[in-house]
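Appendix C reproduces, verbatim, an entry submitted by the partner laboratory led by Prof. M.T., so that reviewers can inspect both the input and the predicted structure.
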Amino acid sequence: MTVHATPMIVERLAAIVGARHVIGPDGDQEPYLVDWRGRYRGTAEAIVKPASTAEVAAVVKLCAELGFAIVPQGGNTGMCGAATPLSERPSVVLRLDRMNTIRAISRLGDSIAVDAGCILADVQKAAETADRLFPLSLGAEGSCQIGGNLSTNAGGTAVLRYGTTRELTLGIEAVLPDGSVLDLMTSLRKDSTGVDLKQLFIGAEGTLGIITGAVLKLFPRPRQRSVALAKAENIEAVLDLLALARTELGDRLGAFEVMSRGQVQVIAENVPHIAIPFAADAPWFVLIELVDTLRGIDLAAEMETMLASAFERGLIGDALVASSEAQAAALWAIRHSVSEGSKRAGYVVSHDSAVPLEHQAEFVRRVEARIAALRPEARIVMHGHLGDGNIHVLAILPGVAADQRETLAPIVSAINRAVDEETAALGGSISAEHGIGIANKERLNHVTAPREMALLRQVKALLDPQGLMNPGKVLSD
């Protein structure tokens, strides 16, 4: 297919969305061409910002006609480069910032219909106005967009109680690669009329179409919470603490997050405004949150009783229960600073593994030993949502200058291979919540059964025969 000249695409895009909402090669495209971590950089013939599903459809039809690839981009906060245009093929970056309308809220049906460009924090606030909760919560919630959350099946800190984005989604609206609109904006909780087509687009990272709207589940707002930070001597004790908390506290257990000692030290060293209330003298730190929709329940007392039981059993050595909302927020701020602290500490080789809980301790020990054998100088730190089996293993390589990063490819590959082999051997997933994008597509190919990969490619070929939707992402060539 012949790709037409750049001036033509810019002019025709402007005719659809208005000249103010198209940035050509001579404009300031830089914020849209580099991923959040600064690992990937591409080029684009244009950045286009449609304001409606109809405009998205018209843009897609035009790109299909002229042979331009389309790279959907939300808040550009992803960890794997899925929203970065590659340079090998003329591309248009399609931003959804202007599609930020809350379409409807149903208190009776506990649902909210939104544009895909809505910022996650704004959806949370809109739910609050209806005295409801939208529970998806991420470190980037002030800038990430719902379309990106769906496209990567985002997880976050509330999966233990509420599930991933996939489980929070009732319906979607998507523009297909030919420019037609698939309207699946249902709020039904029960529907057994065949295959659930929306699931094709959740987690597909824009490779099958562009999500333009969604109907999301809401929940009753918690009326109170209790937050605690505890110390544990080993990962087995942390897992036993999780089992105890589930047994004694049931559905009130809203979050169960862990950080290794090295991770806490990295935060203390690199994020000076974050206060660590303990000395970093224990191998593991556990952040626990209880929530309840009922008033009159003394959650702090329930937390203290559970922690006292854990102390008697030798599972924890010390614990701090927040005495105010400000103190609770300060404890959560530690957990939310892991990315910032790690990024400042050096070059980060990060992993997003999930393994069954019964194999979690074995996974932690195996991975730490293998990375240490490969790179003794690496700082190996861990954090994650242990309650749902997702633990992030980071190998931080200090003192790596920007011009040295290309030489790290063999090192990164070896570390990734070690972690992926252990993850696969224990029945896990190499991407629990961050997605595949550019960073993980070769890794996905290595750990996924050939028949499964072949089926994924068949689905891609069926829906996007021209290969225009976010090419070079998820599936390796």
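The chain is about 35% helix and 20% strand. Additional entries are available on request from the coordinating office.
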